Amino acid sequence: MASVLSPPLPRTFRLPVSGRYLGGRLLTGLVAVWGAITLVFFALYSTGNPALLLVPPDAPPDEVERLTRVLGFDRPIPEQYVTFLGTVLTGRFPDSIRYGENPLPIALEKVPASLALGATGLLIGTLLGGLIGYWSATARSSWLRRGPLGVAVAFESVPTFFIGILLVLVFAVNLGWFPATNGRGLPGLVLPAVTLALAFIPAIARVFRTALLDVLQAEHIRTARAKGLPHHLLVRRHVVANALGTTLNVVGIQAGVMLGGAVVTESVFGWPGIGQLSINAVQNRDYPLVIVCVLVIAAGFVLINLLVDVLAALVEPRLRS
Amino acid sequence: MTTATLHKGRTIGIGGWIGAGILTVVVAATVLAPWITGDPLEQHLEILLQAPSAAHPFGTDDLGRDLLTRTIHGGRTALTISVMSAVLASVLGLSLALAGALFGGWVDAISGRLADVQLAVPSIVLAIVVLSFVGNSFGPIVLVLVLGSWVLTFRVVRGHARAVIEQQYVEAARVAGAGRAAIAWRHLIPSVLPLLAVAFTLNASYALLLESSLGYLGLGVQPPQPDWGQMVAAGQAQIFTAPWIAFFPGLAVVVTSLGLQLLGDGLAERFTGGPVTRRGTK
Questions:
Q1: How much is the pTM?
Q2: Which segments cross the bilayer (chain A) (predicted)?
Q3: Closest-CA residue of chain A to B244
Q4: In this structure, is residue A94 part of a structural domain?
Q5: Is the complex ipTM more than 0.85?
Q6: Could you say which of B13, B43, B136, B190 is the most buried, measured as most Cβ atoms within 10 Å of its Cβ?
């Protein structure tokens, strides 16, 4: 009966990821953001009177008192907590000490620059890391199997800020090809993006390699080989596609480490993104801005994880549970 | 499978020995720093920004301070913080993993959930929150590093401890009347010790990288106390005129971290027959 009234949509029209899966992930993300807000609240509270932190150092005592009352720092802790949640939800944060206005627009303004850097770095990192992982799992020459992976793994011992410094030393100081810091436009993007990519590459190469090796041992691969499928076609059609889901999943788990790399990269190159803004805010003791930056970064982290989960579910149907 | 007989004749390999050698040199230099070098804060205004030479192998900075001396002393800060964090992180990870394996049920569930929480809070966010509000002295920095790295040990030990607890000899010990503490002491801990050594080197390497990054970002220990990450940040301002100021402290981080990772890989090879703790190289 029902099928007569509403004929089933053609297969291509179906959402590849179920709404339930998406909802579950979104809920987990919201819990994580709530956790970040709570963490900030308790860190603020552990300093004694948070109002003292939220006003300029030279503020008169009555200003401190006013803020204490307005933000409810003289109320019991549970009530303060609710007030703080309300502040976050309405976006009406106390003014930034440095900029003298609501810090939320200031922080949001920096997001596009961070996204541009992150996307470029991730693109380069994924392509190179994937290629290295692919070689190390499938190449016939033992040099190609071990060399690039060995170099990539050695980079795990180099902190991201020093990768940036080394690139600056070679390509800005010695060769003069790119600006060292505060670069704008495409030339200014190259060194930060490569730094960020080098921070991703070892993890991506490793994980992709393991995933490829796992798939290569599967029975359907043996069958495909037995029927005489050429090696390159076999790998392209059957192996890589099956390895993508696992890789994306592990990359999602590593997203926190990569986020740290992004903040450091922005600081090394003076890239005008949210990472540099937050570090500057910490150094200037601009606590309202620090709070907002932390919340924006946490929300971004959750969204990135959500995106990775959806992508993983898209390429790997077994993950859609 | 992981009995001693299978390991006979296995060594930590060339890489492991190189790693151990590097670490011996680095640790010896930093421990003996007050006796083998001068004062890291001593200024010589007549030798500002000198390039590396025989008298000053790493050169001098903008205050005429000898960079070799400062780099060696910087290692005292970086290594003290990293090693202490790694020890605490190992103890925390080991305790939670053993508790989970011994008690099972909700203890296991909660410790597993704590590890998930650690993944959901990026270290950098934790660092910014704790170090800006609580202050960037020794204690909070160690706290951030421990919270950021205990899961490394936890994961490695947990899997192994769960497997061991299922073994018949543990069952036999339980039947013979051994309590949880006795099983942990007699059977679990000796069994996970080699893995713990591997996890410790990984933990220390991660803590060192994070510590130097915090130092670079200005969230670590404050000047004038020399610290590798902070020295790189200070040197960056003079990168066009005196690149050695930023280069050598950074190189010290890389060499030490490489030493830890080589030793870790060697130990893993020796004790478990392969770098089980590192994804992708099996």
A1: 0.83
A2: 21-45, 113-137, 149-177, 189-208, 289-315
A3: A169
A4: no
A5: no
A6: B136
